[in-house]
Amino acid sequence: MTQQLDADSLESALTSDAPDLESPCGPRAFAGHRVDLAAAQRAAADFLVALGIDLNEDGLRETPARMVRAYAELFGPKPIQLTTFENAEGYDELVIARGIPFRTVCEHHLLPFSGVAHVGYLPGERILGLSKLARLVEHFAARPQTQERLTKQVADCLSMCVAPRGAGVVLEAEHSCMTLRGVRAIGAMTVTSALHGCLRTDSRSRAEFFALAGVHV
Ligand SMILES: [Zn+2]
Predict the structure, then answer these.
(1) What is the pTM of this model?
(2) Residue 80 C-alpha to ligand 1 middle, in angstroms?
(3) What is the pLDDT, as a whole number, of residue 63?
(4) Which of 1, 110, 136, 200 is the most buried (most CB within 10 A)?
């Protein structure tokens, strides 16, 4: 059975006044998303059996189905509408959402990594609803990711949709592929940043962004 998880969201996104269908956060980004739950469940069972796990044990019988539901949830698209408003008051200081919690899955090991994101911009002619900064992070986190790409995608999309004078994104995350296995560097945080416009070119704006985001550089 092939199930299209995002049919409703896709429909509403396509019929709305989305400014840019081709944008990385636009509705077309979801057009190819199909989930075949039955096939995934068969594959999950084969995978676990191949690893020597006996699925006849009581607690494990439903594990392939649960596993598939969990991953489908993690990778379920989170469509957003980045509605912008005219910057009527001429606000020209930084707008920052600090400590946005996020979780995603690393594309190399398919193990979770999670942490917080700090997202900010220096408005130009348009401003964005505040909750959209968190939505942006959630949106790009809903797929196998690298922390570097996730950071860049949020910054790129913010710049493209709002055309701010500057945009900055910092992600601080703990990767379970690094803490639970491999080097087992428990507690190690990976920090990434992407800066655009005057946050990149002007050292004072950049320092102010990092200070307000609570990032020590
Ligand atoms: Zn990994």
Answers:
(1) 0.84
(2) 27
(3) 97
(4) 136
